[in-house]
Amino acid sequence: MKRWQSLILGVVISVATLAYALNGNDLSKIGDELARGNYLWIIPCSALIGLGLWFRGLRWRFLLNERITALHSFHITNISYFLNAWLPLRLGEVARAYLVTRLKPPIAMFTALSSVVVERLIDLLAVVILVVLAVLLTEVPSEVQASAQLIGVVSVLGIFVLAFFAARRQLAHAILSVFLKFLPFLERLGMRSLVDKVLDGIAP
Prior knowledge:
Layout: H1 3-22, H2 27-36, H3 42-63, H4 70-86, H5 91-100, H6 109-137, H7 142-167, H8 169-182, H9 185-188, H10 191-200
Helix pairs in contact: 3-4, 4-5, 5-6, 6-7, 6-10, 8-10
């Protein structure tokens, strides 16, 4: 796609999303709020958001064993977050995995998806750590504490299990062979190759 076509498409998408966001709102009230705004805060806020997205892109690149450039990782991460904001079921993550298959050299989609899963588990673990700090410093409802404990256990177990099988691939294939004896049709679907691609996205 030519540069001017990309520019026009970007403008059209921006206008359409802005119109959708403003639909049904009182434009006069929005205008009043905009008039009272301190726009100097836009600069540091935009810088912090951009920096956060850049580091998220670098983290994902690290999980992919640096098989993509930092710039590609940053751009694809931005697209993913944009789609997550507008589409249900976090389809932006699927789009992220698809986009890396279009790079040269491409990365297998299931490899990318497994790296996204690890990334989300790390995010969950970070949330649990923040909740633990909140519990230590403030009074937190027991329901929140119980939820945090459950999420923490699931996150730690998930990361441990994935890392364990990524480091012991032969054991993963041995367990898979047992399942394939009972479900032989999975062999024809290339399940062994699929497992390898998933483990490639997890292995350090």
